[in-house]
Amino acid sequence: MSHEEALSELSAVALDAAPSEIASAVRAHAAACPECGPELAAMEQTVAILGELAPAAQINRGRSAGIRSRLIMRGRAERESRSAPVPGPPDIARGVASLTGQGHRITPGAQRPVTGDTKRVTPPAQQPKVPLDVIPARRSINWYAIAATLALIITGAQLFRVTTDRDRMREQVAALDSVQSPTDSLTAMLSRKDSMIAAMTGPDVKVVPLVIEGASEPLGRMMWNRASNDWIMVTYNLRPPKPGKTYQVWLVTDDAKISAGTFHPDANGGTFMHARYAMDRNALRAVAITEEPEGGMPAPTGPMVVAGNA
Amino acid sequence: MNPSERPQSYSSENGSNADDVALMRRMVEADETALGALYDRWVRSLYSLVLHLLKDPDEAEDVVEETFWQAWRKAGSYEPSRGAVSTWLLTIGRRKALDRLRARKRSREDLIGEDRSFADLPSSDPDPSIDTEGAELRENVRRALNHLPAEQREVLELGYFNGLSQSEIADVTGQPLGTVKTRMRLAMQKLREPLSMHRGVTE
């Protein structure tokens, strides 16, 4: 790009009104041009001053405090993870895979996340113990009210649901047989299907339906095989998180909320997660999914999307 | 405007920006309390801008959070020589807000029909206790804005508030692309003059 061409595009670039390829060329030129570089900087500063002319608006104080708190908490968590990385076992999200819709994939082993959205989060030992009922949330739900309701629901329907989930999983895993992808490690996938089905249907499986308040049908279930320490979570029709947000799974015990990882459901709202994590067979009190900033949080801060009593 | 509603500090090459730069350095060193301090200084200005662009408080709050988080993550890439911290922050926030506007995929009539113009920008009522120089600069820019010919102002508004490219502006206004480019360039040059007189970024 010539100097004259770059000069003529500076204002559009400063306003973000130029096509990306032109903007890139102009910026490359400006980086080395003693005339265009300062001119572009000045125009960008002018654009920023235009932003300062916007009518003053007052952000909701409570929400602003929540945003500030989340930012600091995330910053702290990141600093701590930088300075003292601790291997954390309960990373269920490492095994996240979508089984709904077309082109099902299951990641063999628990070492490779299937989606780029799945991230490891702070292990439980690093997490602050924040009581659930004081979690700052825009649209908080009474966890214990949900838990009491769920206790009634679970009792009568658990056996039927286990069977339904087992059949559903069998169908989904069976569908893998028809998937022919040169990039998928089908052999490894298939080698796991028997153990996964067993993990979901064994005598020691505890099923936790995950429901949204007021809904008659669950949006997912967490199945915990207390003999094999397998954890399997499925969701259906879960709406996508807001832009810039992710879902985070929490295993709630009496004295901790253990992050089980972050995930994004597929286009159909479906999610399948599998991992192994040992927990005292009587320790689990509830499972919850909250909406959190990308990357997850060391403790739940966002609105609860679904939850279930163990 | 009520002085109490003004942001706590403004960008310029004065003490407030030096404070911001110091906060940025602490953020590079992973001091999260600096992030909180930067948030306190600029949340009102940033929220005002993105709310004016998005017209949706929930989305505006999301953009505010994303912007400060990006500031934390990218603090090391901030270069004081390229402008004030506030310039950097507001630029990030505006881009994120425009990304959301574009993602809404609304009709162009919706975009240009909404109240996103400079027409409702209030007259500056600077609080003399804070950053008088910055307030004066803003007032001069606002005055220059008010003196722009209508056709230049229209082009500027469509680009600034609606995130339209020059081609899209040409499409919306029915003007040749070359005319749009010329009007935008002239408008920006006129708005830039107060900045040159103020401290002289290029001088």
Q: Categorize the overall geometry of chain A.
A: elongated
Instruction: Indicate the low-confidence ranges of chain A by residue numbers.
Output: 85-140, 177-184
Percentage beta strand of chain A: 15-25%
- Identify the biggest protein-protein contact and residues per side: A-B, 52 and 76 residues
In angstroms, what separates the terminal alpha carbons of chain B? Answer: 33 Å
Overall pLDDT of chain A: 70
Task: Work out the helix count of chain A.
Answer: 6
Largest sheet of chain B: none
State the end-to-end CA separation of chain A.
64 Å
* Total count of helical runs of at least 4 residues of chain B: 9
> What's the average pLDDT of chain B?
77
Fraction of residues in H or I helices of chain A: 25-40%
Task: Please report which band the strand proportion of chain B falls in: under 5%, 5-15%, 15-25%, 25-35%, 35-45% or over 45%.
Answer: under 5%
Question: Topology of this protein?
Answer:
The complex is a heterodimer of chains A (310) and B (203).
Chain A: H1 3-14, H2 20-32, H3 36-52, H4 61-83, H5 143-175, H6 186-201, E1 205-210, E2 220-225, E3 230-235, E4 245-252, E5 257-263, E6 271-276, E7 286-293, E8 304-309
Antiparallel strand pairs in A: 1-2, 2-3, 3-6, 4-5, 4-7, 7-8
Helix pairs in contact in A: 1-2, 1-3, 2-3, 5-6
Chain B: H1 15-28, H2 32-54, H3 57-73, H4 85-103, H5 108-113, H6 132-146, H7 150-162, H8 166-173, H9 177-198
Helix pairs in contact in B: 1-2, 2-3, 2-4, 3-4, 6-9, 7-9, 8-9
